[in-house]
Amino acid sequence: MPHHVIQFSGGAGSALTAVRVAERYPGEQVTLLIADTRVEDPDLWRFSKDVADLLGLELTVVRDGRTPWEVFADQRFLGNDRLAPCTYWLKQKPCREWMDEHAPPGDTIAYVGIEPNDRDRRRIAAIVRNWLPWRTEFPLADGPDATKDELLEEVRALGLRPPRLYELGFSHNNCFGSCVRAGHRQWKHLLATLPERYAHAEAKEEELRELLGDVAILRDRRGGTSRPLPLRELRLREQCAA
Ligand code: SF4
User: Fold this and answer.
1) What is the pLDDT of residue 93?
2) How far is ligand 1, taken at its centre, from the CA of residue 26, in Å?
3) First to last CA, the chain
């Protein structure tokens, strides 16, 4: 009997993926595997526990032990929308190590919660390749079209309170709204909705700039040139424009 391992992120997509798998394979072994980046919104853990309780499962939590900021310092590289080493060190590697130990590829299916609105066949093919030798499935991406709002409605209909970051207007419930892959718009939204989290990210970025020189998560591409745009500068611009 296969072991079904959900690569659970604490977001709506992976929660509904877990629900689909648990419904499809009643009585079979299902694991909710989640990596702790140590910078998640506490409400992510509340939601994750609610999902686990709904399905009668325990959360299986793996962790590297560092934050993304600590990974950037160790790697001497500040993550950005093109390259984010935090994903590898804090999520992929610990999850894969757990799979190596507990989920033999021949008996295991890994499930990834790509949402229908995020469906991108090239990205899915890359995930499939990255997870080899495990077999991967994408129950939501391979299912009917659904908007984010429709997915959140389904989450509510299950009696679950969605993670608060969605209610605050974020598209993803990860790293407390401070994902280095996010663009200008999300960082401005973070500044407007969770200014203390923005301040934390800004302080961490400043520490990394001390260490690494003129680097930044964002880039300013105005005027046909490209240069690092520190969060501090983006904040000052926003405050001047207000
Ligand atoms: S969500 Fe963003 S900041 Fe967090 S580990 Fe992934 S890429 Fe890094």
Assistant:
1) 97
2) 32
3) 59
**And the tokens for 156?**
């509510």
CATH number where 54 lies: 3.40.50.620
**pLDDT tens for residues 157-200?**
999 999 999 999 999 999 999 999 999 999 999 999 999 999 99
Number of independent structural domains in the chain: 2
Q: How close is the Cα of 210 to the center of ligand 1, in Å? A: 22
Parent domain of 160: 3-167
- Ligand 1 centre to CA of 34 (Å) is 13
Give residue ranges with CB within 6 A of ligand 1.
Answer: 37, 68, 79, 84, 86-87, 90-91, 174-175, 179-181
Of 198, 197, 191, 189, the residue nearest 171 (C-alpha): 189
Q: How far is CA 172 from the centre of its chain?
A: 7
User: Quick check: is 39 in a domain?
Assistant: yes
Residues 41 and 95 occupy one common structural domain: yes
Report which protein residue has its CA nearest ligand 1's atom 3: 179
Q: Please say which residue of 133, 167, 201 terminates a domain.
A: 167
Is the pTM here over 0.90, yes or no? yes
118 band by pLDDT with thresholds 50, 70 and 90: confident
CA distance 152 to 171: 11
